[in-house]
Specification:
The complex is a heterodimer of chains A (107) and B (116). With 107 residues, chain A is an all-beta fold. Chain A has strands spanning 4-7, 10-13, 19-29, 34-39, 46-50, 54-55, 63-76, 86-92, 96-98, 102-106. Chain A is built from no helices and ten strands. Chain A is globular, with a radius of gyration of 13 Å. Chain B has 116 residues and is an all-beta fold. In chain B, the strands form two sheets. In chain B, strands 2, 4, 5, 6, 9, 10 and 11 form a seven-stranded mixed beta sheet that branches. A four-stranded antiparallel beta sheet of chain B has the order 1-3-8-7, with no helix packed on it. Classes of the chains: A mainly beta (107), B mainly beta (116).
Chain lengths: 107, 116
Protein backbone atom coordinates (compact mmCIF):
# COMPACT_ATOMS: atom_id res chain seq x y z
CA UNK A 1 0.00 0.00 0.00
CA UNK A 2 1.29 3.43 -0.96
CA UNK A 3 1.85 5.92 1.87
CA UNK A 4 1.70 9.65 1.18
CA UNK A 5 3.79 11.91 3.40
CA UNK A 6 3.09 15.64 3.31
CA UNK A 7 5.47 18.36 4.42
CA UNK A 8 5.67 20.61 6.20
CA UNK A 9 3.02 19.86 8.79
CA UNK A 10 2.32 23.56 9.18
CA UNK A 11 3.29 26.44 6.94
CA UNK A 12 3.06 29.93 8.43
CA UNK A 13 2.93 32.61 5.78
CA UNK A 14 1.54 36.08 5.15
CA UNK A 15 -1.06 37.04 2.53
CA UNK A 16 0.63 37.66 -0.79
CA UNK A 17 3.42 35.16 -0.16
CA UNK A 18 4.05 32.00 -2.15
CA UNK A 19 3.18 28.63 -0.58
CA UNK A 20 4.89 25.42 -1.61
CA UNK A 21 3.46 22.16 -0.25
CA UNK A 22 5.06 18.77 -0.74
CA UNK A 23 3.55 15.30 -1.06
CA UNK A 24 5.94 12.36 -1.23
CA UNK A 25 4.77 8.84 -2.10
CA UNK A 26 6.39 5.71 -0.67
CA UNK A 27 6.69 4.33 -4.20
CA UNK A 28 6.31 5.71 -7.68
CA UNK A 29 2.73 6.56 -8.61
CA UNK A 30 0.97 7.38 -11.84
CA UNK A 31 0.54 11.15 -12.07
CA UNK A 32 -3.02 10.74 -13.32
CA UNK A 33 -3.86 9.27 -9.95
CA UNK A 34 -2.71 12.17 -7.72
CA UNK A 35 -5.10 14.85 -6.48
CA UNK A 36 -5.03 17.79 -4.03
CA UNK A 37 -7.86 18.99 -1.78
CA UNK A 38 -8.48 22.05 0.36
CA UNK A 39 -10.44 21.96 3.60
CA UNK A 40 -11.36 25.09 5.49
CA UNK A 41 -12.42 24.89 9.17
CA UNK A 42 -15.92 23.50 9.51
CA UNK A 43 -16.23 22.90 5.77
CA UNK A 44 -16.26 19.94 3.42
CA UNK A 45 -13.08 19.20 1.45
CA UNK A 46 -13.00 20.34 -2.16
CA UNK A 47 -10.80 19.14 -4.99
CA UNK A 48 -8.28 21.70 -6.26
CA UNK A 49 -6.01 19.69 -8.55
CA UNK A 50 -6.44 16.31 -10.25
CA UNK A 51 -4.05 14.27 -12.37
CA UNK A 52 -1.24 16.04 -10.50
CA UNK A 53 -1.49 19.28 -12.48
CA UNK A 54 -5.01 19.89 -13.79
CA UNK A 55 -7.08 22.52 -11.99
CA UNK A 56 -10.60 21.52 -11.08
CA UNK A 57 -13.54 23.60 -12.27
CA UNK A 58 -13.66 27.04 -10.70
CA UNK A 59 -10.24 26.84 -9.04
CA UNK A 60 -8.23 30.07 -9.40
CA UNK A 61 -5.03 29.95 -11.43
CA UNK A 62 -2.92 30.91 -8.42
CA UNK A 63 -3.19 27.20 -7.52
CA UNK A 64 -0.92 24.88 -9.49
CA UNK A 65 0.22 21.30 -9.16
CA UNK A 66 3.35 19.61 -10.43
CA UNK A 67 5.50 16.55 -9.99
CA UNK A 68 5.90 12.96 -11.02
CA UNK A 69 7.09 9.64 -9.71
CA UNK A 70 7.24 9.99 -5.93
CA UNK A 71 7.40 13.79 -5.50
CA UNK A 72 4.48 16.13 -6.04
CA UNK A 73 4.00 19.80 -5.21
CA UNK A 74 1.05 22.12 -4.73
CA UNK A 75 1.95 25.76 -5.20
CA UNK A 76 -0.16 28.77 -4.29
CA UNK A 77 1.50 31.67 -6.10
CA UNK A 78 0.13 34.51 -3.92
CA UNK A 79 -1.82 33.65 -0.81
CA UNK A 80 -5.23 35.21 -0.49
CA UNK A 81 -6.97 35.42 2.93
CA UNK A 82 -9.36 32.62 1.91
CA UNK A 83 -6.46 30.23 1.14
CA UNK A 84 -5.52 29.68 4.78
CA UNK A 85 -6.70 26.10 5.25
CA UNK A 86 -5.56 22.49 5.40
CA UNK A 87 -4.42 20.82 2.19
CA UNK A 88 -4.40 17.09 1.49
CA UNK A 89 -2.92 15.07 -1.31
CA UNK A 90 -4.64 11.83 -2.34
CA UNK A 91 -3.70 8.84 -4.45
CA UNK A 92 -5.95 6.43 -6.31
CA UNK A 93 -4.90 2.83 -6.01
CA UNK A 94 -6.24 -0.31 -4.41
CA UNK A 95 -7.08 2.13 -1.65
CA UNK A 96 -7.69 5.84 -2.06
CA UNK A 97 -4.95 7.04 0.29
CA UNK A 98 -4.77 10.55 1.73
CA UNK A 99 -1.70 12.29 3.06
CA UNK A 100 -1.85 13.56 6.63
CA UNK A 101 -2.33 17.17 5.54
CA UNK A 102 -0.47 20.48 5.60
CA UNK A 103 -1.99 23.40 7.46
CA UNK A 104 -1.34 26.81 5.94
CA UNK A 105 -1.88 29.43 8.61
CA UNK A 106 -1.42 33.15 8.89
CA UNK A 107 1.97 34.31 10.10
CA UNK B 1 -28.95 21.08 -7.57
CA UNK B 2 -26.23 18.46 -7.75
CA UNK B 3 -25.53 17.29 -4.21
CA UNK B 4 -24.95 14.43 -1.80
CA UNK B 5 -26.67 14.39 1.57
CA UNK B 6 -25.63 12.04 4.37
CA UNK B 7 -27.82 10.99 7.26
CA UNK B 8 -27.95 8.38 9.98
CA UNK B 9 -25.17 9.48 12.29
CA UNK B 10 -25.53 9.61 16.03
CA UNK B 11 -24.36 8.27 19.36
CA UNK B 12 -23.84 4.51 19.63
CA UNK B 13 -22.25 2.28 22.27
CA UNK B 14 -19.08 0.30 21.58
CA UNK B 15 -19.99 -2.92 19.82
CA UNK B 16 -23.14 -1.39 18.39
CA UNK B 17 -24.27 -0.82 14.82
CA UNK B 18 -25.32 2.12 12.70
CA UNK B 19 -26.40 2.53 9.08
CA UNK B 20 -25.46 5.68 7.23
CA UNK B 21 -27.26 6.86 4.10
CA UNK B 22 -26.02 9.02 1.25
CA UNK B 23 -28.75 10.44 -0.99
CA UNK B 24 -27.80 11.83 -4.37
CA UNK B 25 -29.78 14.50 -6.19
CA UNK B 26 -29.28 16.22 -9.51
CA UNK B 27 -27.44 13.26 -11.03
CA UNK B 28 -27.67 9.46 -11.34
CA UNK B 29 -25.55 7.93 -8.62
CA UNK B 30 -25.31 4.54 -10.34
CA UNK B 31 -23.15 6.14 -13.07
CA UNK B 32 -20.45 7.03 -10.58
CA UNK B 33 -18.10 5.48 -8.06
CA UNK B 34 -19.26 6.30 -4.54
CA UNK B 35 -16.82 6.54 -1.65
CA UNK B 36 -17.02 6.92 2.11
CA UNK B 37 -14.35 9.05 3.80
CA UNK B 38 -14.17 9.81 7.51
CA UNK B 39 -12.46 12.42 9.63
CA UNK B 40 -11.90 11.89 13.33
CA UNK B 41 -12.12 15.03 15.51
CA UNK B 42 -9.12 17.25 14.79
CA UNK B 43 -7.58 14.68 12.45
CA UNK B 44 -7.07 14.20 8.74
CA UNK B 45 -9.11 12.47 6.05
CA UNK B 46 -9.29 8.68 5.93
CA UNK B 47 -10.78 6.85 2.95
CA UNK B 48 -12.70 3.80 4.16
CA UNK B 49 -14.74 2.30 1.30
CA UNK B 50 -15.61 2.55 -2.39
CA UNK B 51 -18.28 1.06 -4.65
CA UNK B 52 -17.22 1.53 -8.25
CA UNK B 53 -19.34 1.98 -11.36
CA UNK B 54 -20.33 0.25 -13.53
CA UNK B 55 -19.01 -3.00 -12.12
CA UNK B 56 -19.81 -2.10 -8.52
CA UNK B 57 -16.48 -3.50 -7.40
CA UNK B 58 -16.19 -2.92 -3.69
CA UNK B 59 -13.11 -1.96 -1.66
CA UNK B 60 -12.48 -1.36 2.03
CA UNK B 61 -9.68 0.07 4.13
CA UNK B 62 -8.08 -2.47 6.43
CA UNK B 63 -9.34 -0.49 9.43
CA UNK B 64 -12.99 -1.32 8.63
CA UNK B 65 -12.76 -4.54 6.61
CA UNK B 66 -15.10 -7.20 7.99
CA UNK B 67 -17.08 -4.68 10.06
CA UNK B 68 -18.42 -2.17 7.51
CA UNK B 69 -20.46 -2.91 4.37
CA UNK B 70 -21.10 -0.51 1.50
CA UNK B 71 -24.18 -0.89 -0.67
CA UNK B 72 -26.35 1.00 -3.15
CA UNK B 73 -30.02 1.23 -4.04
CA UNK B 74 -30.47 2.56 -7.56
CA UNK B 75 -34.21 2.99 -7.09
CA UNK B 76 -33.50 5.42 -4.26
CA UNK B 77 -30.46 6.99 -5.97
CA UNK B 78 -28.68 6.34 -2.70
CA UNK B 79 -25.77 4.53 -1.10
CA UNK B 80 -25.37 3.15 2.38
CA UNK B 81 -22.70 2.24 4.89
CA UNK B 82 -23.62 -0.46 7.38
CA UNK B 83 -21.28 -0.19 10.36
CA UNK B 84 -21.10 -3.08 12.83
CA UNK B 85 -18.91 -3.83 15.84
CA UNK B 86 -18.25 -0.13 16.29
CA UNK B 87 -15.26 1.02 18.31
CA UNK B 88 -14.33 4.28 19.99
CA UNK B 89 -11.80 4.90 17.23
CA UNK B 90 -14.61 4.91 14.65
CA UNK B 91 -15.80 8.23 16.08
CA UNK B 92 -15.66 10.68 13.19
CA UNK B 93 -17.55 12.75 10.68
CA UNK B 94 -18.44 10.44 7.79
CA UNK B 95 -18.57 11.91 4.31
CA UNK B 96 -19.80 10.32 1.11
CA UNK B 97 -17.94 11.51 -1.96
CA UNK B 98 -18.38 10.96 -5.68
CA UNK B 99 -15.56 9.94 -7.98
CA UNK B 100 -13.39 7.09 -9.21
CA UNK B 101 -9.88 8.60 -9.07
CA UNK B 102 -10.54 11.93 -7.36
CA UNK B 103 -13.59 13.10 -5.44
CA UNK B 104 -15.37 15.98 -7.15
CA UNK B 105 -18.51 16.11 -5.03
CA UNK B 106 -18.78 15.69 -1.25
CA UNK B 107 -21.68 15.60 1.14
CA UNK B 108 -21.76 17.78 4.24
CA UNK B 109 -20.96 14.83 6.51
CA UNK B 110 -22.70 13.08 9.39
CA UNK B 111 -21.18 12.68 12.86
CA UNK B 112 -20.83 9.24 14.40
CA UNK B 113 -19.88 9.09 18.06
CA UNK B 114 -19.01 5.74 19.63
CA UNK B 115 -19.05 6.03 23.39
CA UNK B 116 -20.49 4.28 26.42
Amino acid sequence: EIVLTQSPGTLSLSPGERATLSCRASQSVISSYLAWYQQKPGQTPRVLIYSASSRATGIPDRFSGSGSGTDFTLTISRLEPEDFAVYYCQHFGSSRTFGQGTKVDIK
Amino acid sequence: EVQLVESGGGLVKPGGSLRLSCAASGFTLSAYTLNWVRQAPGKGLEWISSSSSPSFDIYYADSVKGRFTISRDDTLNSAFLQMNSLRAEDTAVYYCARGEVWFDLWGQGTLVTVSS
